[in-house]
Request: fold
Amino acid sequence: MVDILIIGAGPAGLSAAVYACRAGHSVVVLEENLVGGQIASSSEVENYPAVARISGADFAMNLYEQAAALGAKVEFEPVERAELAGPVKKLYTPDGVYEGRTVIIANGAKRRKLGAPGEEEFAGRGVSYCATCDGAFYRGKEVAIVGGGNTALEDALFLANNCKTVHLIHRRGEFRGNKILADAAVSRENIVIHYHSVVEKIEGEKQVGAVSILSGEAEKQPVRIPVSGVFIAVGTVPGNALFEGQLELDAAGYLVAGEDCLTKIPGVYVAGDTRTKQLRQLVTANADGAVAAVAASTYLATLEASGS
Reply:
């Protein structure tokens, strides 16, 4: 049995591992795929404080190596079942069961995909799921953003500050997002809104060169829009089904926890994109990891003081 079990080796999970190891605790991190989470697929990171520029893959590997050097053990096994109640927490994988005195859930969330032809092919080469991460690379260029919620509207307004033209592609005739954001997007001269439109395919050679849409309320007509980038903002998908019935989930499936990263179960914490929060960014994921690790360390100290 270890002091702290961490689910997910993304920025939140690995940051938690760093802080937990530095506090002298034994740590096991369980990761389903590759270290780094979503950031590992970003071509460049330019908005992390004090780091002018670094590739997402290098950032992820640096964080992984730091955690490993401090003593964190990373196991590449998916968590299939969790028993979180009681003094001993149990996480079940295909290869066995891991036991810990505390658990930090940092399994992240996956960007919802469009499923359009060209999306996978041009991922990282013009197709992006994060305007604040990659928008600066398209300064003075034409881009498209797909979606109609708050994220899409916020991203469109953000991109409009630097891009020549932003084509906002929305499948409905009105936006689902906040009216203030929608009004702001409609009033921006360099945001062109394509209502009742769906992406047919994303085109290009080595990089994105255009997006083809089907547009029209009654009868869809093909329209080809030359762009250098396509930003997809149609939501995220957390993978929290295995915690249902043990922890509180909101309507979208995110684990309910505040900035303190606490859950209703003593010794169980939530960090990063998997929890309810306003801003899902690299810097906030890392901050969550630190907060959760310190909270877990404090909880363990309380147990030791009481003789448990």
